[in-house]
Amino acid sequence: MDLATLLGLTLALTMIGVSVVLSGGSPNAFYDSAAITTVCGGMLAALLICFPISTVARLPAVLYRLLFPQVTDTSSLVQRLVRLAEIARRDGLLALEHRAEEGEHPFVRLGVELAVDGTRPEMLEEVLRSEIDSMARRHREGKGMLDQLGRSAPAFGLIGTLLGLIVMLGNISDPSSIAGGMAVALITTLYGAVLSTASLLPMAEKLAFYSRQEMLTREIIVRGILAIQAGEHPRLIAQRLKVYLPPAARAQLERGTA
Amino acid sequence: MDLATLLGLTLALTMIGVSVVLSGGSPNAFYDSAAITTVCGGMLAALLICFPISTVARLPAVLYRLLFPQVTDTSSLVQRLVRLAEIARRDGLLALEHRAEEGEHPFVRLGVELAVDGTRPEMLEEVLRSEIDSMARRHREGKGMLDQLGRSAPAFGLIGTLLGLIVMLGNISDPSSIAGGMAVALITTLYGAVLSTASLLPMAEKLAFYSRQEMLTREIIVRGILAIQAGEHPRLIAQRLKVYLPPAARAQLERGTA
Amino acid sequence: MDLATLLGLTLALTMIGVSVVLSGGSPNAFYDSAAITTVCGGMLAALLICFPISTVARLPAVLYRLLFPQVTDTSSLVQRLVRLAEIARRDGLLALEHRAEEGEHPFVRLGVELAVDGTRPEMLEEVLRSEIDSMARRHREGKGMLDQLGRSAPAFGLIGTLLGLIVMLGNISDPSSIAGGMAVALITTLYGAVLSTASLLPMAEKLAFYSRQEMLTREIIVRGILAIQAGEHPRLIAQRLKVYLPPAARAQLERGTA
Amino acid sequence: MDLATLLGLTLALTMIGVSVVLSGGSPNAFYDSAAITTVCGGMLAALLICFPISTVARLPAVLYRLLFPQVTDTSSLVQRLVRLAEIARRDGLLALEHRAEEGEHPFVRLGVELAVDGTRPEMLEEVLRSEIDSMARRHREGKGMLDQLGRSAPAFGLIGTLLGLIVMLGNISDPSSIAGGMAVALITTLYGAVLSTASLLPMAEKLAFYSRQEMLTREIIVRGILAIQAGEHPRLIAQRLKVYLPPAARAQLERGTA
Amino acid sequence: MDLATLLGLTLALTMIGVSVVLSGGSPNAFYDSAAITTVCGGMLAALLICFPISTVARLPAVLYRLLFPQVTDTSSLVQRLVRLAEIARRDGLLALEHRAEEGEHPFVRLGVELAVDGTRPEMLEEVLRSEIDSMARRHREGKGMLDQLGRSAPAFGLIGTLLGLIVMLGNISDPSSIAGGMAVALITTLYGAVLSTASLLPMAEKLAFYSRQEMLTREIIVRGILAIQAGEHPRLIAQRLKVYLPPAARAQLERGTA
């Protein structure tokens, strides 16, 4: 579970509530059903025009992944790959078949399976890399949706405010109602700005962060599987994969494999 | 037919209507002929200055393609290419001549035709790739027009509002008419923002999506035709083209060609 | 003559006029000499600070080229190059000397001249490509000037409006003059927005379009001249140059050279 | 200690204070707790959604590094590397072990240690370069945090102003309080603009400047260590490393090594 | 002396003065010491936070270079290089030593000196290119400072206006003073917009123009010196360097060296 995201979202809401109370307003004044219709309806409409339905349907999964990301510990991953290399060197590639089943990263499983099946190295690399490419494309689409929502939120906020102003200026029989009308019109702009600045755009950044991390994980796996298939010495594989780890993890690994 | 685009456009209009009614306004207050003249006339004018007439004339075709896109199922395309490869291997390249006529993707037909005519592989690839390039250029121009319209819509909305404000402030004999004048002036900004945010810019994104998909389709075809011409084994061709498919489609294809 | 640009500029002006009349204003209210001084003077000043005088002096020529562009028909250009190749093959390179004089594209003339003079192929290509580079640099500067004007127009519009507002707010003895002062102040913003959105920025795009087209034309010529100098078979030259043409023109050329 | 940054921050605060006094206002009018809650709380919230907690926790360290940067004098670094090369040539690589301990740049120490341990040149370069890469990634994240804060500050400033306006317009029983309400609402926008323009965005630029400088330092070290390991002549190493120095430092070094 | 820049700056000031007079205002109304403090102080503060003091201290030199640029006539430079090549071919490289002293471009002098000293070609090129790189870095920093000033000017303009508005709204005992307060508040925005649009950003563009030109000059010199060192025939050197000249200068040079 990504605590930082949850903490950030909670903090943003709390901070707005506190700030409303501090300036002497009532939270009720900030609920407006027309504003919610305009901003959320408009954002969904623009999303549907931007992306095919099959992509839009993946949005809940994208948000779930954002709150419950799968983070792989790269230094224990390198250790597992080195252990697989040791088994392969001792007992042959076929011995990996059952070892890779037990709670392994699915990408390690796929690589081992292909290697065990005797896939040629070029084809093995091509298949694994095309998996990474298609994952990168899926991640880009996920981030693309959040970016698009983050861009359209303030625009629909502005549209809602314009709608409210035009309605207010059109039936202006009672001058005393102007201030109230203005307040309601501005709520839509507020919704759009809060959604975009305090959730959607930062969430797209966090998604890109996790995507970069998962790409690194898979790059390590591709290199590891290819080295195992080539029958390289486990120590050499450890040395080669270690350069992908942060300095601290590297030192720890050296103690582990020494 | 692209349901998502249609759904998105409908939803955008509905959401604006609902939001107007919720805030107590009348839809009639949002129709203004001067505003339509300014925004739509201005957008067309800027489009004509940006692009040559021959490109602008293709705009209706671009919009039609957006609503009724030609989507090729890549996994059945790979199956068809593998079948053509089997025929070519069994009966020779010439046997493909009549097979490729029946409801095939026009780009497959072109490739088969060139191969049957005995075009040298380099020339075959050059011709097919230059077709893809000219298609990409056409797609870029189509997206470029929607982008330009999406950029100029809010600008002409602002111009219309400035025009309205200057007229209103110029003949301000009657102070009670100010509010109404403001309302009318703001309608142009609303038109520009809605056109841009809720249709033109997202439509340009969807166009780019379809363009990327069609590029992938044609890349598969080029690789397939070249492999068929080189007389490669159908199974090898299947393996090579499979890496372009999404994981799910790949598994399905494996069952199909097994 | 580029009809689309002329049509676009006319349409933009007409549309603004119609829109003013529709909203009940008088066109006279939109003429203000201080606004013209601020926007046009400011744009010229910024242009002079951005570019050296020799570049700024080319602005009228750039605008003339925009309205009266030299468009080369690429398919007849390919036909002429193929004909030159036939002559060169039949009668030798020297026979091209007088043939290339008659109404040929100046870049074809330059290439033929260099080839007839016995320039070595590498040097011939280097000279022709450096000509293309210096043309590309000139085009970029032309587009750069229009882009700079298009960017500074709204900025000077805003500056003029600020000037007007400060003057108006400074001598506000008569409250009834406020509305008129506001109207005059806003005219500068309107000028800037119209100049930028409805002429300068789209004109920069059109310039880029013509530049891309002329680059393609010259690329075809370089390839053609080099192939002629190398003594390649005219049919092979035709095949090689054809891939630069749009599909329709290619089919037409095939009938022409068959 | 980076005097320029400190001077800049002090100057910005002083200038704002002077400007407030010059325009006849009281500094007290510019303190508002709701505004501070909104802008600072919002910025922290968006930062937490953007980055994982482990990155956000490094923010104080990033700010400390900005005020107290570690600047390496490249010309004395080149001299030290040349001296190490002389020792290695005279007494062998192993003689470097104790020499590199005394107050050396940690990256020089790491390189010497690896060279003394007999690491192969390719592996040595790979390890050093992966250190540089991971440092570059850390620097990019640091700059990324300041950029994100600099982008979100004005956005939360706007959000605070909208909150204030809506509260003010909602309970507008007393028209005389409008001006005061407006003043308070605008303070949030002021906070956001000052934080972004006068500290966060320029600080991100300064961070990028120091990062480029440290990259150059480490590039010199990698080249130097590799040349020392290869046993190159110290004079040749001096010549090769000198090209990374500014002209003035180069001349000075020539006198030093002559 | 760069007349265009001077002319542009004068024109911008004149145009603003004329426009103020045309709209019936007095130039005195546009002087405000608090506004100058805010905008200029703020810009300097942000500059100091962005760049180290040593870079900021070079700002006056950058502005001087902008008004009095060193422009090298590339066609006479090519002629001088060809003459040096003739001397080197006739009397040997050493004969160049005294010839290059007389009023030559300092970069030509550096190159000749290195060649006369017997520096190996690779090292000669590396030293000259690293000089070009460090010049490019200095130019980028100079342009970077003007860009940063041009970006921060309108931001501090806005900050000054917000300060003014808050002060004005805070002590609003006398409603008749509102207009005057607004006028003063807007002056800061005007200062920022004029500084940015009418001087700083265009000056950064001009700087980039001169930088590109000086890079081209030095590229010609590097190629020329290397060819002289390699003992190439002067006519060949002339042919090779000519391609860097504009077409007109090329024709003129041909007459000169014929």
Describe the structure.
The structure is a homopentamer of 258-residue chains. Chain A has one domain. With 258 residues, chain A is an all-alpha fold. Chain A is elongated and about 90 Å long. Chain A is 80% helix and 0% strand. The first copy, chain A, contains eleven helices and no strands.
Task: Lay out the secondary structure.
The structure is a homopentamer of 258-residue chains.
Chain A: H1 3-22, H2 33-50, H3 53-56, H4 59-67, H5 74-91, H6 96-99, H7 106-116, H8 121-170, H9 178-229, H10 234-242, H11 247-257
Features:
homopentamer, 258 residues, 80% helix, MotA_ExbB_proton_chnl (chains A, B, C, D, E)
Helix-strand sequence of chain A: HHHHHHHHHHH
Level of helix content of chain A?
A: over 70%
Query: Which consecutive residue ranges of chain A, at least 5 long each, have pLDDT under 50?
Result: none
Query: Can you tell me the number of structural domains of chain A?
Result: 1
Q: Shape of chain A, please?
A: elongated
Measured distance between first and last alpha carbons of chain A: 33 Å
* Largest sheet, strands/sense/barrel of chain A: none
Q: Find the biggest chain interface.
A: A-B, 42 and 47 residues
Structural class designation of chain A? mainly alpha
Number of strands of chain A: 0
Q: Compute the CA-based radius of gyration of chain A.
A: 26 Å
Number of helices of chain A: 11
Beta content of chain A comes to: under 5%
- What is the subunit arrangement here? homopentamer
Mean pLDDT of chain A: 88
